[in-house]
Amino acid sequence: MLQLGELTLALTLLQYTAKPHHEVRTFFAGKFSLQRSWVKETALWFGCIMSVVSLTSLLADKLIGPEDAYDHILKEILSDGPTSSLLCFFLYSVIAPLSEEMIYRGFLLTGLSSSMKQRDAVIISSIMFSVAHLSGKSFFQLFIIGCTTGLAYCQTGTLASSFTIHSLYNAVILFTMIRS
Q1: What would the DSSP string read from start to end of the chain?
Q2: CB of 107 within 8 A of CB of 153?
Q3: Lowest mean pLDDT among 7-16, 112-121, 127-136, 151-160
Q4: How distant is the alpha carbon of residue 57 from its chain centre?
Q5: What percent of the chain has pLDDT over 70?
Q6: Exposed, middle or buried: residue 73 (CB in 10 Å: 0-12, 13-18, 19+)?
Q7: Long-range CB contacts (within 8 A, 24+) of 15-18
Q8: What CA dihedral angle connects 151, 157, 160 and 164, to 10 degrees?
């Protein structure tokens, strides 16, 4: 329910605060060109995010020791049956990434980029993305995810890229959780 509220808020904010030449419905359209294929860029950035997050997880396990980073409530929902698993998958892999990418990349990053260097805007929006998840244990990994999706958005010019990366990442996490 919280994710649906977040999506509604994101769409409302975007509708009423987007610049006149930036209509909300065009956030996923991007500036496509043959030289800049968003699908190829998305695959590249997704590989990057999975590699870096895996390496930081291994490093954290060596330095701090292994820790159960998965939410026990989420694990319980996933094991409750096929209907709850499917609904959880839809919320976690579609609704959450959609609303978060609209807020943090489509609204915040775009707004910050108009008044500062794009690099700084990516860093600030990624910090805010990490803080909003309220997870001290995963702050650095969330920051990496925010930076990666932010850079993908900046490079491709479309939220479709950052949404796809975020969605696939969340799906991998869910499948890992189901299998553990």
Answers
A1: -HHHHHHHHHHHHHHHHS-TT--GGGTTT---BTTB-HHHHHHHHHHHHHHHHHHHHHHHHHHT-----S-HHHHHHHTS-HHHHHHHHHIIIIIHHHHHHIIIIIIIIHHHHTTS-HHHHHHHHHHHHHHHTT-STTHHHHHHHHHHHHHHHHHHS-HHHHHHHHHHHHHHHHHHHHH-
A2: no
A3: 7-16
A4: 18
A5: 76
A6: exposed
A7: 17/107, 17/111, 18/107
A8: -20
- Confidence class for position 82, pLDDT limits 50, 70, 90: confident
CA 28 to chain centroid, in Å, comes to 15
pTM: 0.73
* Whole-number Å distance between alpha carbons of 174 and 83: 15
Find tokens 């409302």 and name the residue: 12
Token pair belonging to 69: 């980073």
Q: Given the structure tokens 């956030």, which residue do they identify? A: 27
Give 168's Cβ-side CA count (13 Å radius).
16
Angle among Cα 41, 45, 49 to the nearest 5 degrees reads: 170
Tokens of 170: 């969340």
Q: Give me the pLDDT at residue 35, please.
A: 47
CA dist 158 to 38, 39, 90, 134, Å?
Answer: 8, 10, 22, 27
